[in-house]
Design brief:
There is one protein chain. The protein is an alpha/beta fold. The chain has a single domain, classed as Rossmann fold, CATH 3.40.50.720. It has a seven-stranded parallel beta sheet with strand order 3-2-1-4-5-7-8, sandwiched between helices. Strands 6-9 form a two-stranded parallel sheet. Helix 2 crosses helix 3. The longest helix has 21 residues. Bound molecules: 1,4-dihydronicotinamide adenine dinucleotide and D-galactaro-1,5-lactone. The site of D-galactaro-1,5-lactone has 8 residues, from helix 5.
Length: 273
């Protein structure tokens, strides 16, 4: 005889960046994992729905971030500036904000963080390279540099305090690829949720750097060093191939957005070589 139970694996998960593009997707899709989903953002999140708590706060506000972390079991850190911008706002949201988050995680004894890192930590590798998690950073923008900071900071909190983090270097997570580059970087919402499930429930993750990408035909990233998470992409950009036939207009072969993995992010300044 099986006993029916309503209990969910986590008591309280915290999602930062909950008003953003991915946050709005995850708002519904994380609920099966947790009794309470605490949602946070600088922007308005509307009223709390069933099983939700809302905390509107600026990640750059250390005491507000500390209060937001009370009673949390694990964090999905998606908040911050998600594109290239001036250094000052990136510094406040992504650098100061991520530091504030880890200080709060440490003080509140949270055991695991999933950090929404980015492919732009390695965007100055070439589109002919196959990049793995142990290769040096080659950020393509100040935004990418801020994500490198988050990866290094999370490694520090693991080595010093044993706080586990999965840094998920997300490719392009949108309903569908928006340009030919995204045929390589596409990460479907279903695969995003599956990779988060793996990152939350793997028994031990230590400090893991994983690539967030679907099972697309062409690959720039070797994710084998995150094999212990058990993530297998089920979707593929292949089904969108008709959107970008070989005859479709695309940047020239010698265009920087063709040469470098980061695509348009490499155009945020001059390129040395
Ligand atoms: P988004 O820009 O739509 O959402 C980010 C959210 O963070 C926004 O709702 C914004 O209000 C909030 N935020 C910004 N500054 C804040 C602050 N100082 N305090 C509190 N909240 C703040 O971005 P999206 O696409 O949802 O991405 C979510 C995360 O995933 C970001 O960290 C982004 O860097 C990362 N990512 C996303 C990718 C994608 O393809 N969507 C690719 C790679 C990384
Ligand atoms: C990112 O890091 C951005 O947050 C997202 O908006 C996309 O631009 C994505 O990378 C990408 O590389 O397509």
């Amino acid at each position: 005889m099986t006993t029916q139970t309503n209990s969910k694996p986590f008591k309280r998960l915290l999602l930062t960046g909950a008003a953003g593009g991915l946050g709005r997707v995850l708002r519904e899709r994380l609920k099966p994992f947790t009794e309470v989903l605490r949602l946070s953002d600088l922007s308005d999140l509307g009223p709390a729905r069933e099983g939700e708590e809302i905390v509107q706060c600026d990640l750059a506000d250390k005491s507000a971030v500390m209060a937001m972390m009370e009673g949390v079991d694990a964090v999905l850190h998606f908040g911050g500036i998600s594109v290239e911008a001036a250094f000052e706002p990136i510094m406040l949201a992504n650098i100061q904000g991520t530091y504030n988050l880890y200080e709060a995680v440490h003080k509140c004894n949270v055991q695991r963080v999933i950090f929404a890192s980015s492919n732009h930590t390695v965007g100055f590798y070439r589109t002919t390279d196959l990049v793995d998690a142990d290769m040096p950073f080659r950020a393509d923008s100040m935004y990418g540099v801020s994500k490198c900071f988050g990866e290094v900071l999370s490694r520090y909190y693991y080595d010093r305090f044993g706080i586990e983090t999965v840094c998920l270097r997300i490719g392009s997570s949108f309903p569908e690829p928006l340009n030919p580059r995204m045929m390589v970087t596409y990460f479907s919402y279903d695969d995003l949720v599956e990779s988060l499930r793996c990152a939350l429930f793997a028994p031990r993750v230590g400090h893991t750097i994983a690539f967030g990408v679907s099972n697309n035909p062409k690959k720039w990233w070797d994710d084998s060093k995150a094999g212990h998470l058990g993530y297998q992409g089920k979707d593929s950009s292949e089904k969108f191939a008709d959107k970008f036939p070989p005859t479709a207009e695309r940047p020239a072969k010698d265009d920087p957005t063709t040469i470098f993995q980061g695509g348009p992010f490499v155009l945020s300044g001059p390129i040395y070589k």
